[in-house]
Specification:
Elements lengths: L3 E4 L17 H5 L1 E4 L3 E5 L5 E8 L22 H12 L3 H11 L14 E8 L5 E9 L4 E8 L2 E10 L4 E19 L4 E6 L2 E7 L6 E9 L4 E5 L2 E18 L14 H31 L3 E3 L9 H7 L2 H18 L25 E2 L3 H5 L13 H9 L1 H12 L17 E2 L11 H4 L4 H16 L2 H21 L1 E3 L4 E3 L16 H21 L6 H8 L52 H13 L5 H13 L3 H14 L15 H14 E2 L5 E3 L10 E8 L3 E8 L2 E9 L3 E7 L7 E5 L2 E7 L1
Parallel strand pairs: 21-25, 24-26, 25-27
Antiparallel strand pairs: 1-6, 2-3, 3-4, 4-5, 5-9, 6-7, 7-8, 8-9, 9-14, 10-11, 11-12, 12-14, 13-14, 15-22, 16-17, 18-19, 20-21, 22-23, 23-24
Amino acid sequence: MRKKMYFEQPCRLTKRSQPDASDGTWSHFGLPLGNGRMGAMLGGEVFQEVIQFNEETLFNGGPLADQMYQHGNASNRGEDLQEIQALLLAGENEKAAMLCQQQLVGLEAGYGAYQNLGELVIGYQFAETEVSGYRRELDLDQAIHRASFCVGQNQVRRQSFISEPDQLFVHHFSSQTAIDLLIAFQSEHPYRLDQTEQGWQVKGYLQDNQLQFAFELTLLFDQGTLEVSGEMLKLKECSEVTLLVGIVTNYAPDFPKYRQSLPNQRLIEQITKGRQHRFTMLKQRHLVDYQALFNRVDLQLVAQEQDLPVNQIITNGGLPLAELLYHYGRYLLIASSRIGGLPSNLQGVWNETNNPPWGSDYHLNVNLQMNYWGASGANLVETVEPLVAYVEHLRKPGRLTAAAYHGIVSDAENPENGFVAHTQTTPFGFTGPGWDFEWGWSPAAIPWILENLYDVYLFTLDSIYLQKIYPMLKEATRFFEQALVYQANDGNYYSAPAYSPEHGPITLGNVYEHSLIQQLILNTIAAANILACDQENVPKWQALTKQIRVEEVGADGQVKEWFEETTIGSVEKYQDNHRHVSHLLGLYPMHRIQKTTELATAAKMSLEHRGLGTTGWSMIHRGLMWARLGEGAMVEQIIELFLTQCLNQNLFATHPPFQIDANLGYVALVQEALVQSQIGYLEIFPALPPSWKDGQIKGIRCRGNLKVDLKWEASQLIEIIVTTEKAQKIQLVLPNQMKQTTVLTQGKNDISYLIT
């Protein structure tokens, strides 16, 4: 079971000549560490290690970035929206589209981007220069970066990790021969550096919004002498040292200021506690915390595997790479999303520049959703908590957007009257549409992200969790009760104007928006019934769902993307092979389209026409849809294409450029190929790739609060173990050739199974 990524050469993460420049080294060869809140990228250099740091809340933009920061909203566009809706109802789409680009756009001012905090530079002054036996690795089983090598006859070892329980970056260096170390900090942001007892503290800020940060380093050593020269630390004649780094900012997820006092005392306490624990105890505490999550699930596709460097694994491809990438995805999710913090952004928690692609923000038109598609199945439901909190914190600014563009006002009498957000969001409550309608307008973004949150309930059956997310479901439903427009001709309600990401015409409704809106209302109804609340609203919500047009079959036998569509390509601005397949969300991530229906046949036709995908995340999304259709051969083809075309040498997936969504989405794809549970029963091997002939997976979670272990040989299921916490009846669906399967149970359950 491959859970280590190793290289035979170091990576030079040197300071860039320009703060926003990148030569690709960082995203291709650096190895990431993280504890959800802090991120670090290491290259394992021999004579000078550059460790690049991030902190998840270090965003510029937002309040104080612009004195008129309005969360991206232009003012009083409700009448403009009504005019556009009237034009669409009258069939004057071209005129409506022109006004959309003029009137239904937002403000770029204050948008901002995720920032690179800075780099820690450690110079190792070895007496010799001949290096041998070099190896650096990222141990996924322990979340530890290691580098080991000889300089002459001197054996050198380094270990680094970021502890979640202690909130510290820990770097341990040991050498057979005492040497001198030079340590410096560098950042593109203004800062002041002050000496402490055994290190220094850096206090800095972002220039546009004055967000403050503090970065403190302390050294633990028993041998050697510490000298301070300006902003340089020099540790002389040292053979073993531990560096502890803590980081805090004064960001707070509190609308509208998003600030708190800089928690410097908390940082001091973290450093002080870390000094008391020392390296061995810090490492043990880190392992207990991390492995309690990572070890819940295990996948094995290769019985015996050679110890090969990553570049060779990538070259060889196949099962070893497929298995390793699954574990890497789980590692990255744990490293970038932990309780109490922000969710994983477009790049997880890692970023080398101050002007990253798309701001390294939170995109709600597939990317943030994909980050969490695999979380529940991988038994990492705790990692979803930051996403729940993030969506909750969009509600207050989202009400401003609802008022500015839709005239839907929340006031003292009706404080939760509806909220909305669009394609791009930030930790500062940026909920307005983007500054270009065709990529920025997407009111269905909230229903889509709420589909993620509701699906977590289906996995856990946790009523306390459902009570937590229900107010979001209800308020979003309340928004669309008022935002949809009625067309008397057919007696239906429409989302208008509607735009299918990110191509085609602007229309009166489309399948993308309507399927999400209808599903939101259905989920709200289901939640209200489970929680026995709002029963007076359920009948009107049920009636509304029946007056929303959703998936339809077109003249070519395809799922239509626009209601005006007849044959494929019959609408203006349609782009063949477009990376988005938003009209098929009913297939995945929703489970509106079941594989034995006419719509499933139409979805298959649409997927075949659209192709295998143009970017990393696009391939993964298509793979998930093919898995729902039960097409294991297509899943394998897409995985092979993804493995050969979309991975950097450090296994970061590319859009291009690097985005974390495909890495995390791949976890979901593996799980969907092995077991599905979206329509009331467990289906085993619904889309098993043909080359995955032998293997096992343990600890995978399924809807209904089930845990499943599978073992198979020669593509035959040998054993399945289903574990439950509460008494329930479970139906298994097994392929016809697997009649000899042994079915074992743990817990209180009653299992029956079908051979199909």
